Every structure is written in C-alpha cells, then in structure tokens.
Amino acid sequence: QLQLVESGGGLVQPGGSLRLSCAASGFTLQYYAIGWFRQAPGKEREGVSCISSSDGSTYYADSVKGRFTISRDNAKNTVYLQMNSLKPEDTAVYYCAIRLHAMCVLEGYDYWGQGTRVTVSS
Questions:
Q1: Which of 23, 54, 20, 25 is nearest to 37 (CA)?
Q2: Going along 26-103, which residue ranges are E strands?
Q3: Which residues, including other chains, have CB under 8 Å from residue 73's CB and lie 6 or more apart?
C-alpha cells in the first residue's frame, strides 16, 4: 500500500521550533522528489519546500527561507521539515507529497499524506 504519514505537528509559541516527519510505505523516497506544502484556514495551499532525489537540491518559499530546513534519511525512508523561529503566520495544516520524478518543483505531486496541524500561538 502506497502511503505517506506526517507527524510532529502541534502547538508551539512564536519563536519556537518543531520538526515534522514524513514517513513512507510502499515508496522508496530516495528515488523521488518530496515536497512539503501547507494550507492555512481560508487560504489556498502553498508550497513550502522540496528536495530532489537526483542531487539533493532543495527549494524554499521566500516566506520560510532561512527558518525551515528540509532533509531526508534514506535509511528510515523519511523526510523531515525542521521549522525554527516559528511565526503565527506559519499556522497551517502541513502536508508532505511525493512526486514520481527526481527533480524538485512545487507542482505535479502524485501522492499526498493526510496532514499534520501546526499552530503557532502564545
């Protein structure tokens, strides 16, 4: 069964950190591009970050650049999103997705996880 499962969301104060995980079953993540997306209440889904399989290159949206870091652990078949210096505007449901292609772009993803909620509030 092809499945992506996100975890690590929760409530955090502004300035805090969280690490989201995206664990895969039925896929070998190292061969594909993985993206993180988020959707805030009342807003459209937006691409946050992605990582390529071919050369490990990464992309970050301007809104998270310098604060978020995407990485992968091939042995655990898991991709992470380390989120530091969190802001209230980072509040959203975060989704990971797999693109059945090596290169990282923020469109054309084929399988999605169910999401994990991140709330940044004091």
A1: 20
A2: 33-39, 46-51, 58-60, 68-73, 78-83, 92-99
A3: 79, 80
Query: pLDDT digit string (tens) for 46-101?
Result: 999 999 998 889 999 999 999 999 999 999 999 999 999 999 999 999 999 999 99
Q: Which pLDDT belongs to residue 55?
A: 85
CB 34 within 8 A of CB 105: no
Please report where in the chains the tokens 């992605």 appear, as a residue. Answer: 50
The rounded distance, in Å, linking the Cα atoms of 58 and 72 is: 11
For 118, left (φ over 0), alpha (ψ -120 to 50), or beta?
A: beta
What SS3 state is found at 90? Answer: helix
